[in-house]
């Protein structure tokens, strides 16, 4: 059984990935993302098919498949003596996923990064990505040295389709609709800790580190 079982939540652009990586390195836990475990296990056969079948059809991978793959990933972490546990980033995203997680894990704390919609839109629409190596930049906060050119590989730095304002707004609304019941669920369980995600990454980390230290 993992000693540290942490969930981090927040809308797109809230900074979950940044804080999860810091949690992972500081507390000797694995950073588990939904996208990561699906890619690593895309050919895994479940009762409801493999992730690849849904991905290639352009469909969302159903909760039943995601649950089974996350369960496998957590079991592997439990068996790894070099890891003290995990931080789940991007899971659970629906109430059915949260209820399933309750049956296979004993979560210590759920961190929710609170960020206003205005700030989220500003962060996400300003994001730029290298087409070749995937490095992320931001037009205001972290631009490449030469506009449109990746510092690392010289590839083209562009705005992704899903970082355009209308798409970003839809993503945020969809996230809020799906995860509101999950947030309420963990609040009722006494596990939810709200963290002000409007601050700088270092300021947010100070709060996150203090919270995780106290709770786990």
How does the SSE layout of this entry go?
Elements: E1 4-9, H1 16-27, E2 30-33, H2 34-40, H3 51-56, H4 63-78, E3 85-89, H5 95-104, E4 109-114, H6 117-125, E5 127-130, E6 136-138, E7 157-158, H7 165-188, E8 192-196, H8 201-215
Parallel strand pairs: 1-3, 1-4, 2-3, 4-8
Antiparallel strand pairs: 5-6, 5-7
Helix pairs in contact: 1-8, 4-5, 6-7
CATH architecture level-2 label of the domain at 4-115 and 179-215: 3-Layer(aba) Sandwich
* Strand order, largest beta sheet: 2-3-1-4-8
CATH topology of the domain at 4-115 and 179-215: Rossmann fold
Broad CATH class of the domain at 4-115 and 179-215: Alpha Beta
- How far apart the termini lie comes to 14 Å
Report on this model:
With 216 residues, this protein is α/β, with parallel strands linked by helices. The chain contains 8 helices and 8 strands; from the N terminus they run βαβαααβαβαβββαβα. It has a domain of 149 residues: Rossmann fold (3-Layer(aba) Sandwich), CATH 3.40.50.300. Strand 5 and strand 6 form a beta hairpin. Helix 1 crosses helix 8 and helix 6 crosses helix 7. The longest helix has 24 residues. The protein is globular.
């Amino acid at each position: 059984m993992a000693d540290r079982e942490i969930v981090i939540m927040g809308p797109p652009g809230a900074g979950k990935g940044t804080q999860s990586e810091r949690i992972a390195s500081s507390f000797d836990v694995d950073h588990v993302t939904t996208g990561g475990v699906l890619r690593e296990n895309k050919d895994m056969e479940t009762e409801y098919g493999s992730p690849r079948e849904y991905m290639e059809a352009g469909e969302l991978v159903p909760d039943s498949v995601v649950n089974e793959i996350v369960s496998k990933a957590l079991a592997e972490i439990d068996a790894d003596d070099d890891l003290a546990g995990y931080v789940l980033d991007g899971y659970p995203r629906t109430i059915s996923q949260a209820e399933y997680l309750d049956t296979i894990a004993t979560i210590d704390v759920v961190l929710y990064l609170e960020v206003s919609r205005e700030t989220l839109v500003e962060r996400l629409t300003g994001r730029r990505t290298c087409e070749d190596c995937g490095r992320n930049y931001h037009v205001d906060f972290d631009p490449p040295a030469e506009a449109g050119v990746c510092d690392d590989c010289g590839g083209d730095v562009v705005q992704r389709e899903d970082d355009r304002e209308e798409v970003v707004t839809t993503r945020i609304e969809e996230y809020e609709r799906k995860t509101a019941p999950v947030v309420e669920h963990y609040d009722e369980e006494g596990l939810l800790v709200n963290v002000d995600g409007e601050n700088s990454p270092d300021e947010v980390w100070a709060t996150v580190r203090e919270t995780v230290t106290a709770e786990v």
